[in-house]
Amino acid sequence: MRKLFLLNLIITGVLALQSDFLYAQKKATGNADALKTTALNDVQSQYDLYKKTEQQIWSYAEVGYKEYKSSHLLQQVLRDNGFTVDSGVAEMPTAFVATYGSGKPVIGILAEFDALPGLSQDTSPEKHPRPDMKEVNAGHGCGHHLFGTASVAAGVELKKLIETGKLKGTIKVYGCPAEEGGSGKVYLVRAGLFNGVDVVMHWHPGDRNAVNAGRSMANISAKFRFHGISAHAAASPEKGRSAVDAVEAMDNMVNMMREHIPSSTRIHYIITNGGKAPNVVPDFGEVYYYVRNQDREIVRSVFERVVNAAKGAALGTGTTMDYEITGGVYDLLPNMVLSEAMYKNLVKVGGVTYTAAEEAYAKKIQTSFDFKAPDVEAASKIDSLKADTSGEGFGSTDVADVSWTVPTVGLSTATWVPGTPAHSWQAVAAGGMEIGAKGMINAAKAIVLTGIDLFTQPALIGKATAEFNRAKGAGFQYRPMLGDRKPALNYRD
């Protein structure tokens, strides 16, 4: 009889504990939902301020490692909102880390702000370079003016919740220069600036709304420089050795090599210096190469062969060659636990709704495409979440190196007209319009909502970390693709 009494007592205690746990869980969920509602309204109320900020950065259009005004503006917004800002970190003048709060969890948000060379464009739906950008032909063809601003906006909102005691922990906003080929985040990783961070969030402008649970391509980029001997091309050509002949010989060898490398590999190049006058044998020539594959060891191997082609070109043309690795990034490591959490919040935020005027603008831009574009209503929809294991990748990003250092999650929102390719004048144009600002504010909201989940659900971070550790593998050691070189601060020169 006594045993039965004790058993009933134990069962009653367990049920009581379970009830208390469920009540606490329900209360925490209710509190988080209330915080999310407040945060959504507050972010939206700051729309005009953040639109003004991103428009200023759009107008600056500063290329990698030269983003002085853009970086300063974002830092000032963060300082004005109570963040402590360390600038010029990791030997990069335009990089910064802004911090607010204390203790765990530590949540990081990535912010980018570099533009692309050769993409000057006004907001017209037809190709029309900005008249004020003749000397500096650049534009935000990847939307990083929106990227940086939304990330700062999200950081500020989470800071407000910490400041008022509604959340506990630390928020960090990372100012990341030179994503476009300069690999700025690699230097932040290498400097240990993500040590102790629990989760990192990021986003990217695009032509659709989606959580990115896919992979990317590892990448090594380098400039190959050939040195020859000048001579009169008609009177004494035998006395000259053409550096541009060496560039062309290298390019020809690499192009023949394409048949004998893994088909998933991408190699692109541009001749950045091809001589100055036809009647002068050029004593200098330069070509800029990218090598990509999802398998970073294949990238390393193919790049060695590209280097050998350069050496052979120099030998065959009687010139000399040197090269500089300007960038190098890993393949992105996705995290499905975090992706699922962020996806739910993106669905809650929703897509972008165009006005009649914006719809007309969008359709006008689509007439410039030489392919069939999606319906403009695609901007209002959310893509389904799925892990991309196709092996195709979707370009390269230095976010990848962060993702092998700390659990990382990202999304994209429709800041461009559906069908718009990145790195295009069409992306620059829409990014300077209300269309871009609407997508930007949606990204900020989705990051804030996901941040609230991370601050209020320790188990979510635990699950994401467990997946992260499994995916990396026990023997993983980070080895930067660009080695131990210092930041290539003048790679855009």
Automatic annotation (TrEMBL):
One GO MF term, please? dipeptidase activity
A Gene Ontology biological process in which this protein takes part is: folic acid catabolic process
Task: Give the signal sequence positions.
Answer: 1-24
Keywords recorded for this protein, A-Z: Hydrolase, Signal
Query: Does the keyword field hold Signal?
Result: yes
Quote the cellular component terms of the Gene Ontology held in the record. Answer: cytoplasm
Q: Name one Pfam family in it.
A: Peptidase_M20
Q: Enumerate the InterPro entries for this protein.
A: Amidohydrolase (IPR017439), Aminobenzoyl-glu_utiliz_pB (IPR017145), Bact_exopeptidase_dim_dom (IPR036264), Peptidase_M20 (IPR002933), Peptidase_M20/M20A_hydrolases (IPR052030), Peptidase_M20_dimer (IPR011650)
UniProt domain Peptidase M20 dimerisation: residue ranges: 220-311
What the entry lists under PANTHER family is as follows: PEPTIDASE M20 (PTHR30575), XAA-ARG DIPEPTIDASE (PTHR30575:SF0)
UniProt xrefs under NCBIfam families: amidohydrolases
Name this protein carries in UniProt: Amidohydrolase
| Upper lineage | Bacteria, Pseudomonadati, Bacteroidota, Chitinophagia, Chitinophagales
